[in-house]
Write a structure and sequence with these properties.
Strand content: under 5%
Structural class: mainly alpha
InterPro entries: MetI-like (IPR000515), MetI-like_sf (IPR035906), UgpAE/MalFG_permease (IPR050809)
CATH architecture: Orthogonal Bundle
CATH topology: MetI-like fold
Oligomer: single chain
CATH superfamily: MetI-like
GO biological process, one term: transmembrane transport
Keywords: Cell membrane, Membrane, Transmembrane, Transmembrane helix, Transport
Family: Belongs to the binding-protein-dependent transport system permease family.
Order of helices and strands: HHEEHHHHHHHHHHHH
Radius of gyration: 24 Å
Membrane topology: Multi-pass membrane protein
């Protein structure tokens, strides 16, 4: 194996086709999209050279701050919810559900494999106000409350979106973090228990520090996934009411395909890419020392 890896021709023959396919599928569309940022128009109306006009438009666009704020708020809330609930479930598997853990993990993981549109329709029915009363509003009215039109106000719509995406993805992060917890040596846990460490002390002093690398990976996965969220929000609220739940991805889609401005849509996509890179670098830099110590 060492002789093969040391031969540049063998490495080129083995990796060349894969790199070529990766370049064609991933890098070429990215570079193509980057080129669109210097043009206006679409494939139907034709393209016109715009220079840096699309980048100047970013700073004058009144709709962009709203979409950017919703994107950041959504990413922070959903990431914290997904990773926190997933971590609590993983701890539950380790400490209390060792025997029934596989069944519980399967049930919790099940929403991950459901189609996004099906989940969105399910939550629409759960929180429906009219023409039919959904189970949530029926429960509110049963306890003497007044039904709520969850999809007519920004705050309530965001709440439903958050609940749906946390419920849908918490099983994935629970399994991911549980796999990380399994790498912690049992001898270390048993030694700490023998010395009198309780559950909380075990979590604070041993489990959290030793599982920090997989926690950081989960944060990076989640924050990048939520910054690029599109399908679940589009299927549930369509970005409404108004544009209150419209992230940058949806604004980019509408700009490119509804308004036919590929250039400005690509500029929004580039902004989102830079945002994802910055957030990832910040997370790695903020946790690098602790991970290294762990």
């Amino acid at each position: 194996m060492h002789s093969v890896l040391g031969d540049r021709k063998s490495v080129a023959i083995l990796l060349g086709p894969a790199l070529l396919v990766y370049s064609l599928i991933m890098l070429v569309p990215m570079l193509w999209s980057l080129g669109y940022t210097f043009f206006t128009g679409s494939v139907i109306s034709g393209f016109t050279w715009a220079g840096g006009a699309n980048f100047s438009k970013l700073f004058d666009d009144p709709a962009l701050p709203t979409a950017l704020w919703f994107t950041v708020k959504y990413a922070v809330v959903i990431t914290v919810g997904q990773v926190l609930v997933g971590y609590l479930l993983a701890l539950l598997y380790v400490f209390f559900l060792r025997r029934a853990g596989s069944i519980i993990r399967t049930l919790v993981f099940f929403p991950v494999i459901l189609p996004t549109v099906a989940v969105a329709l399910l939550f629409q029915k759960f929180f429906e106000y009219a023409p039919q009363t959904g189970p949530v509003n029926a429960a509110i009215e049963a306890f003497g409350g007044t039904g709520v039109d969850f999809f007519s106000t920004p705050g309530h719509a965001f709440l439903v979106v958050a609940l749906m995406d946390i419920w849908r993805s918490m099983g994935f992060y629970a399994v991911l973090l549980y796999a990380g917890l399994l790498d912690i040596p049992d001898e270390m846990m048993e030694a700490a228990s023998t010395d009198g460490a309780g559950t909380w002390r075990l979590i604070r002093s041993i489990i959290v520090p030793l599982s920090l690398p997989v926690l950081v990976s989960s944060l990076v996965f989640s924050i990048n996934g939520t910054l690029k969220a599109f399908d679940s929000i589009y299927a549930l609220t369509g970005g409404g009411p108004g544009s209150a739940t419209s992230p940058l991805t949806l604004y980019m889609y509408q700009t490119s395909f509804a308004y036919g401005d590929y250039g400005y849509g690509s500029t929004i996509a580039l902004t989102l890419t830079v945002l994802c890179l910055l957030v990832t670098v910040v997370i790695f830099r903020a946790t690098r020392r602790d991970v290294g110590q762990g």
